[in-house]
Amino acid sequence: MTPEEDRHLAVGAYVLYALPPAEESAFENHLAGCEQCRREAADLLRATARLGASVQNVPVTPQARARTLQAVAHTRQDRVPHRSRAPSHRVLRFALAASIAAAAVLGGIAVRQHVEADDARTRAALAEQQARTAGAAITEVLTAPDATVHSASLTGGTAAAVVVSLDEARAVFAAYGLPALTGGKVYELWYAAEAGDVRPAGLVAGSAPNGSHVLKGSPADAVAVGITVEPAGGSPQPTTEPLGVIPLDV
Amino acid sequence: MPHSFDPDARVEDLLARVAGGDHDAFTGVYDALSGSVMGLACRILRDVAQAEEVTQEVMIEVWRTADRYSPERGTAKAWVLTVAHRRAVDRVRSAQAGSAREHRTVTLEPQRPFDEVAEIVQDHDEQRRLHRCLTALARQERVPLMLAYYQGLTYLEVADALSTPEGTVKSRMRAGLRRLRACLEADA
After folding, report:
1. Residue A115 predicted with pLDDT over 50
2. Phi and psi of A97, rounded to 5°?
3. Which of A50, A63, A70, A139 would best serve as a mutation to test chain B binding (most B beta carbons within 10 A)?
4. What kind of fold does domain B1-95 have according to CATH?
5. CA distance B48 to chain A (A)
6. By the CB < 8 Å criterion, does A43 face chain B?
7. Structure confidence at residue A57 (pLDDT)
8. Is residue A130 predicted with pLDDT exceeding 70?
9. Which of A15, A73, B60, B69 could form a disulfide with A45 if both were Cys (CB 3.0 to 4.6 A apart)?
10. Residue B31 and residue A136: Cα distance in Å, rounded?
11. Cα separation of A169 and A141, whole Å?
12. Confidence band, pLDDT 50/70/90 cuts, at residue A103
């Protein structure tokens, strides 16, 4: 069995919500690049929903009903966030470069460990969040009615694109022609916010970088996606010059 | 109780209005689906108080994210029950988080039926059809589906519980769901 076929076997466990978070993210990356797999996942999810519909109803108490309706009266709905005009390419490149400088200044080992510990927590939280919201959100980024495509050329002429769905609160990165990296190095994706904040948006295996990858976290406040080469395991902030920055123009 | 919407309105149409911020329509969706959500949460959590909390979380999530539902993806009930399943399973898992979950050894509760087909209610044609199709599955394909869906086990935990290789469990989950789907459609 090829690794690709092997990966696809997980589709059953995926729709049953039975993959551990790390495998779930990996499978979602696989889904993002495979239309046939997305169709199969949607079909199997319908069969899975029948398992839920076959359970005996249990009426809620009038108190519980009143509590929920009361809570909803004070709960704002998620709205597609308003996005202001994206700043120029040059500003973004500067933002990424500035954060590299900041990371260099923070070079002391103690500070670095602290940053990494924070980052590990952030990643755990992200993985958990991703696990929670998986299924519905991710499989549909590429086919979402509001999907927008943003493309750019990276250093060396690699073609790259980011597909954003604000409705799904997800983005997908795709590249062809990225050179394979050696020594366990990885490509790391970054969301850049208008204020210049840069946050990690996921890792791409350096050994097989081409294809589509679901970014970690929501693109809601991002005005650009950047990509850098990082040591194994990734970095909390960029440590190398970006290979490219893809502005997410409205 | 009085509602300012047509009592015969389809839940899908009500949900479309909820997406636009319509509170009355939300009340309609709540009354149509909260019993199913509560039923599924009770089944997975086996605890009425926790199931009630999860039901509230689910219905608030439905209110917040109603604009993500699109009818092409299936019925409103299927969408809401998918949300409910994930929330309930999250709750099961966080309750067990204290005990090093990554590779938790699962002890199947002796008082809980191992193969839960007997618990599938058969009040409606649709439920009878599901029961028939589940019974038609080979036990080795059915049991992993039941353990994952109704008890919230990951495929690794199912493999542990059944002393079956992990890859085999993954394949059987896929094969079982494909067969289940084919049976449900052939029967429809």
Report:
1. no
2. -65, -40
3. A50
4. Rna Polymerase Sigma Factor; Chain: A (1.10.1740)
5. 10
6. yes
7. 92
8. no
9. A15
10. 23
11. 8
12. very low
Q: What is the SS3 assignment for B144?
A: helix
Distance from CA of B34 to the nearest CA of A (A): 7
Q: Which of A17, A46, A76 sits opposite B85 (nearest CB)?
A: A17
The answer to whether B63 contacts A72, with C-beta atoms less than 8 Å apart, is: yes
Structure tokens at A143: 């086919």
Residue B119: band (very low, low, confident or very high) from pLDDT cuts 50, 70, 90: low
Indicate the fold that domain B100-188 takes in CATH.
Arc Repressor Mutant, subunit A (1.10.10)
Output the 3-class SS for B41-92: HHHHHCCHHHHHHHHHHHHHHHHHHHHHCCHHHCCHHHHHHHHHHHHHHHHH
Considering only CB atoms, A52 lies closest to which of B40, B65, B172, namely: B40
**Residue for token digits 């409910």?**
B84
In chain A, which residues have their Cβ closer than 8 Å to the Cβ of B180?
47, 50
Q: Estimate the crossing angle of helix B166-187 against helix B125-136, to 10 degrees.
A: 140
Cα–Cα dist A18/B169, whole Å: 11
Residue type, B70: S
Taking contacts as CB-CB distances below 8 angstroms, the residues of chain B near A60 are: 34-35, 38, 52, 55
Please say whether the beta carbons of B122 and B131 come within 8 A. Answer: yes
Q: How many CB atoms lie within 10 A of CB A101?
A: 11
Chain B contact for A131 (CB, 8 A cutoff) = yes
Read off the pLDDT of residues B122-146 as tens digits, 9 standing for 90 and up.
Answer: 777 888 899 999 999 999 999 999 9
Altogether, the residues listed in chain B come to a count of: 188
Work out the minimum CA distance from A213 to partner chain B, whole angstroms: 21
Task: From chain B, pick out residues whose CB is under 8 angstroms from the CB of A137.
Answer: 68
Q: Is there a contact between B95 and A110 (Cβ–Cβ < 8 Å)? A: no
Q: Which residue has the tokens 């809570």?
A: A71
Q: What's phi and psi for B84, nearest 5 deg?
A: -65, -40
Where are the domains positioned within chain B? Answer: 1-95, 100-188
- Chain centre to alpha carbon of residue A71: 30
pLDDT in tens, B59-93: 999 999 998 888 887 899 999 999 999 999 999 98
What are the two backbone dihedrals, phi and then psi, of residue B122, each rounded to the nearest 5 degrees?
A: -130, 45
Neighbours of B162 (CB within 10 A): 19
Q: What is the ipTM of this complex?
A: 0.87
**A contact residues 58-87, partner B, Cβ 8 Å cutoff:** 58-61, 64-65, 67-69, 71-73, 75-80
Q: Are the beta carbons of B90 and A42 separated by less than 8 Å? A: no
Residue type, B160: D
